[in-house]
TrEMBL record, chain A:
Protein name: ABC-2 family transporter protein
UniProt keyword annotations, A-Z: Membrane, Transmembrane, Transmembrane helix
Disulfide bond in keyword set: no
Residue numbers spanned by region Disordered: 1-22
Protein species of origin: Streptacidiphilus jiangxiensis
Signal peptide region: none
Automatic annotation (TrEMBL), chain B:
Segments traversing the membrane: 49-69, 89-111, 132-157, 177-199, 206-225, 256-280
Organism of provenance: Streptacidiphilus jiangxiensis
Signal peptide positions on this chain: none
Designated name of the protein: ABC-type transport system involved in multi-copper enzyme maturation, permease component
UniProtKB keywords: Membrane, Transmembrane, Transmembrane helix
Length: 280, 285
């Protein structure tokens, strides 16, 4: 067709202003994503619930050990690890962080806001990257506060009767950083999962299935070769390796961290592919 | 919704005739409500998908767990072999299925609140408690029928995997038939629990969080408590109490008896449903 290569003028003058560079666009996307994240009540509520739940559980569990220490058997006492005990909430809090990550995007799909977002910035991978960067940064800060606060509260309750740890104790700092990394990676996991499934209900159910039900289901299976090559690599078990002292049959902390990051990268690739081929 | 639900049949103006018709109107309304709930259930994609997924994980779970135990039986410790429950093992897909069935129950109401359909539903049938009850009946019957069938299939497939030294269960064994039927009953209670919590919260994320929080998170949190505190509280949690119905070997000496546990779970569901019935009549939609 003749003329298609020319710009079609609709009569309005070109918009004056600085040219849109990649840097400007990136900053603008980051700003808009930041505003969206900061203005959603559901995100604040989920983050606050995660913090309160973790600290409360650490407080309850450690108070329980403190008050019943003298009635516990010698085996229980010998197996007692103050760091692991105070961080036990890390079996559950990742669900809230995952839900937090999922809500960042499924909320937009639920309300239709996502269409406005992609109309404003048709560079969809850029939008996802901005969300991931902000969620990663906010999630890490929130995770460090949650884990650190819960640890200090828990150890404060243990002090006196039961053995307790401080931030300087051997392995404590590693466990705290590992736990914070686990929570941050689960938040990103939730974000990319949310992009793939686009629905809060499906994302939350999948998170519960993958992080809570499936591990319990396969935990008691005979530990044959098939078990040893698959079950320790489930996201929840990799996360467990990150914050818990080494457990038999599970992966060590460093490879676990890389493998969990691998899960997140895999889901991110799925999310990018989904953004590319599907309508918003 | 079809037109005859919203448009009542023309009645003659005679007052005597109208009073004569009134007793039949209630029955018609019940049937119409049931029919509309049936249409709503099958016309959104999420509900058939969740039901299919629930049936699938129960059946596939029976096969995978059965094959896993058969191949790894030699590496099991003597203690694990003694406490091995072939019926329960073949039915454990129920634990995953409760996620799908529970979401289905929550979404049955919160989905209507999210889209605004609930206003149409309650305008068509202002007897709100009746709408909820009929919805629960339709959803409960569908889930019960499908999940009972899935439960029997999983049991048969699972037992066919237990050959050689692996003990297997037969339907005539003590408590076995009850456990297989229990899988379907437990999932039916889960869907009703989800519905009640959906009616109470009127929000999908909140409803799901409260349902899974109570069924799945609470037991893990309680088990973190030291010594006997966790062990003594755990059997009375809704999920733990209810799951005794589809076990043959009780998991702990503190566990409730199968029907006691199921009764307690049903009581929790009834309390939640009662609160939902009261609130749905008081609140605006």
């Amino acid at each position: 067709m003749p003329g298609t290569s020319k710009r079609i003028s609709n009569g309005s003058p070109p918009v004056p202003g600085p040219p849109v560079t990649a840097l400007r666009r990136g900053r603008a996307v980051l700003t808009s994503e930041w505003i969206k994240m900061g203005s959603l009540r559901s995100l604040r509520a989920t983050a606050l619930t995660g913090l309160v739940f973790s600290v409360l559980l650490a407080f309850l569990v450690c108070t329980g050990f403190h008050s019943r220490w003298h009635s516990l058997g010698p085996e229980t006492r010998a197996a007692f690890r103050p760091v692991d005990t105070s961080l036990g909430f890390l079996q559950l809090t990742p669900l809230l962080f995952g839900a937090l990550g999922a809500l960042v995007v499924t909320g937009e799909y639920g309300t239709g806001q996502i269409r406005g977002t992609f109309a404003a910035t048709p560079q969809r991978p850029l939008v996802l990257a901005a969300k991931a960067v902000l969620l990663g940064a906010v999630g890490l800060a929130l995770a460090l506060i949650t884990v650190g606060f819960a640890f200090l509260v828990g150890q404060g309750q243990l002090a006196g009767t039961a053995p307790h740890a401080s931030l300087g104790s051997s392995g404590a700092a590693g466990a705290l950083l590992g736990g914070a990394l686990y929570l941050t990676l689960t938040a990103l996991f939730g974000l990319f999962l949310g992009v793939v499934v686009r629905s809060t209900a499906v994302a939350v159910s999948t998170l519960f299935g993958l992080f809570l039900v499936l591990p319990v289901l396969v935990d008691n299976l005979p530990k044959g070769a098939a078990w040893r090559h698959t079950v320790p690599w489930l996201p929840s078990n990799l996360g467990y390796s990150l914050w818990h002292s080494p457990a038999p049959l599970l992966v060590r902390a460093t490879p676990a961290g890389f493998a969990l990051a691998g899960w997140v990268v895999l889901l991110a690739a799925g999310a990018l592919a989904s953004l590319r081929v599907r309508d918003a | 919704m079809s037109a005859h639900v919203t448009e009542p049949p023309r009645r003659p103006e005679h007052p005597q005739v109208r009073t004569r018709l009134r007793p039949r109107a209630g029955a018609t309304r019940l049937g119409a409500t049931a029919r509309s709930e049936w249409i709503k259930l099958w016309s959104v994609r999420s509900a058939p998908a969740a039901l299919a997924a629930a049936v699938l994980v129960v059946v596939v779970g029976g096969f995978v767990l059965g094959a896993g135990y058969r191949s790894g039986w030699a590496s099991l410790s003597p203690g694990d072999r003694r406490s091995f429950d072939p019926t329960f093992t073949s039915l454990r897909g129920v634990q995953l299925a409760q996620l799908f069935v529970g979401s289905l129950g929550v979404l049955a109401l919160t989905g209507e609140y999210a889209t605004g359909l609930i206003r149409t539903t309650l305008a068509a049938t202002p007897q709100r408690a009746q709408v909820l009850a009929v919805k629960a009946l339709v959803l409960g019957l569908v889930v019960w029928a499908l999940c009972t069938a899935a439960s029997f299939a999983a049991f048969a497939i699972g037992q066919s995997q237990f050959t050689g030294p692996v003990p297997h269960a037969s339907p005539g064994g003590p408590g076995v038939l009850r456990a297989v039927l229990g899988g379907g009953i437990f999932l039916t209670l889960v869907v009703l629990f989800g519905m009640a919590l959906g009616a109470l919260t009127r929000s999908t994320p909140l409803g799901l969080a409260s349902l899974f929080g109570v069924l799945l998170v609470l037991p893990v949190a309680v088990q973190l408590l030291p010594g006997s505190v966790g062990e003594r509280v755990d059997p009375y949690l809704p999920g733990e109490a209810g799951s005794q119905l589809w076990r043959v070997v009780p998991p702990s000496p503190h566990s409730l008896a199968p029907w006691t546990g199921a009764g307690l779970f049903a009581l929790y569901v009834a309390v939640a449903a009662g609160a939902a019935l009261v609130l749905v009549r008081r609140r605006d939609v």
